[in-house]
Amino acid sequence: MTSREQHDRMANAIRFLSMDAVEKAQSGHPGLPMGCADIATVLFTRFLKYDPKAPHWADRDRFILSAGHGSMLLYSLLHLTGYEDMTIDQIKHFRQLGSKTAGHPEYGHATGIETTTGPLGQGLANSVGFALGERIMNAAFGNDLVDHYTYVLAGDGCLMEGVSQEAIALAGHLKLNKLIVFWDNNNISIDGPVSLADNTDQVARFQASGWNASHIDGTDPEAIAYAIEAARHSDKPTMIACKTTIGFGAPTKAGTNKAHGSPLGADEIAGARKFFNWDSPPFEIPADILDAWRTAGKAGVKARTDWEGRLAKADAKLKAEFERRLAGKLPSNFDAVIADYKKKLSADKPKVATRKSSEMALEVINGAVPETIGGSADLTGSNNTKTSQTKNITPDDYGQRYVHYGIREHGMAAAINGLTLHGGLIAYGGTFMCFSDYARPSMRLSSLMGIRSIFVMTHDSIGLGEDGPTHQPVEHLAALRAIPNHNVFRPADAVETAECWQIALESEKTPSTLALTRQNLPTVRTEFSPENLSSQGAYELAAASGEAAVTIFATGSEVEIALGARDLLEKHGHPTRVVSVPCFELFDKQSDDYRKKTIGNAPIKMAIEAGIRQGWDHLIGSDGIFIGMTGFGASGTIEQLYPHFGITAEAAAKAAEARLHSK
Ligand SMILES: Cc1ncc(C[n+]2csc(CCOP(=O)(O)OP(=O)(O)O)c2C)c(N)n1
């Protein structure tokens, strides 16, 4: 049992590493680590199940620093407990280019960082996915293999962000009782006291959302331990409101916004050294304290080796399946299943909307890949995200595969990231593409982290019709394509949809968005090809009858229009080829040769897409013809809207001919 004095000195090690690292970097946030050091010390020395020597151990407890600006708290903990990659040198290079100690914690930079945080509220919202993932995996593999907690440290900022309400409502509804959130209740944010902008009774708010919540003194180790113990035996998620002082120990800046986000300065740090009676120079931890921390970091070895013993003894099939899923590998027959399905589609030639094609592909995929977890933000019937295999996950049955996220696009996308990061699961969720704006902050983070989150965005253009311009995406394809490391797929028919799903599932380090139509589309890939043509990003779908005078590039629903324009142009004696472009990002990755060949040398290049032009010039050139949208859509039938906005085969053919005649 740690004495109070020992506890204090261990907590002070976090405080000094943090304030000294921020001082050296002349940048960063010392206030949070100084205020929350007691909470972190109690958690990491008495409760958290982890092993720094096996940081990826599947059944570890997860710790998520949602208030990512307090990154030095996490880096200090990782160093002190003995994560090998978090050396003192890394701490000394806090925030420097190339170090693992980035400004905010970044997934993949150092072990022990479970998710990228910094945009406030995201970590808290991810944690719903982590905690749900634990329950789902527990239902599939049992207590022997999956039984861990998810702990979160969130600040006032996390709780003020709107996404926090989506997250806590969902967690409360799903009764994620192994989710435990510490709120750093220090009354301070950047502008000053929180009361400048907020007077919410947070405890009442969490309680109203189905959580346990109570106030404690966040500097009293016994109160913290007591609250964690109670939370671990609760049947609801728990929020512990921890009263703390930002920058605790800084003589004049403690308790003020001056301790939030800038170096304390030499005088304040000297004062803090006096206050805590800490005479070690910067970056030196007294040997007995480092020992105590390293000992705490070894406490999980037994739990980890016991767990490994249970895994070794588990039923061989169960063990193999668990290991496959944790490794993120698809079942070995996956490619064959998709190939068979594509063969059938090319023979059947269905005329269905790509949202329906997506459902048909998912019916095949969900049958073959048991780790997919579907969902929608209250648009299940429209997004076509549910299949025969995916029954509802409820607090009484986590052994199912479908989440009704409610009307919470942002919370859904963040939870999808959490499910993905948890491991063992492939999560997808749907909404209308226009509302990708509501989910975008989390979609961006999935790209930054390089994880396999999948976003199903249906109703992808004016083609949705009567709901009108509030619901018709116009700039969204361009906006999503602007996110680095994000594959935006816009398949043209059922075959391409199956191919795009296949790529999305196989892309372990890149998230995907599937842009899907409401309206029916013919099958354009009528000949079976064993290769996944969509994986090239763009490919020639229809060749010209002679040397091409015109090349038309198109995506999704406009491929049919492009083929219609080609017929007209060919009839008028202008050899025309059509290139389907299901994914810009993948096309950009092809060899120069392939790209040149696919773009071709036709004197007239045209693109047809029912969105804005932005992004297309790199295929058609700035002098290319673009048939698409230049402003918002309108309310009307699809039959009215496409001609109204000039997106028809006739208009396209006319524009090409006008250009041909002017040459
Ligand atoms: C979405 C988002 N908006 C704004 C910021 C900038 N920001 C970083 S910390 C912070 C204040 C957070 O206050 P609090 O959570 O109370 O942290 P503390 O001051 O206690 O460290 C703000 C506005 C951010 N990181 N993320």
Automatic annotation (TrEMBL):
Gene Ontology CC annotation, any one: cytosol
Keywords for this protein: Calcium, Magnesium, Metal-binding, Thiamine pyrophosphate, Transferase
Residues that, per the record, bind thiamine diphosphate: H69, G118, P119, L120, G157, N186, H260, F435
GO molecular function, one term: transketolase activity
CDD domains linked: TPP_PYR_DXS_TK_like (cd07033), TPP_TK (cd02012)
Catalysed reactions listed for this entry: D-sedoheptulose 7-phosphate + D-glyceraldehyde 3-phosphate = aldehydo-D-ribose 5-phosphate + D-xylulose 5-phosphate
Disordered: region residues: 375-394
Residue numbers annotated as active site: E409 (proton donor)
Cofactor: record remark: Binds 1 Mg(2+) ion per subunit. Can also utilize other divalent metal cations, such as Ca(2+), Mn(2+) and Co(2+).
E.C. code: 2.2.1.1
Pfam families: Transket_pyr, Transketolase_C_1, Transketolase_N
Chain residues that bind substrate: H29, H260, R355, S382, H459, D467, H471, R518
GO biological process: pentose-phosphate shunt
NCBIfam families: tktlase_bact
Summary of subunit composition and partner proteins: Homodimer.
Name of the protein described by the UniProt record: Transketolase
Gene source species: Mesorhizobium kowhaii
Lineage, opening ranks: Bacteria, Pseudomonadati, Pseudomonadota, Alphaproteobacteria, Hyphomicrobiales
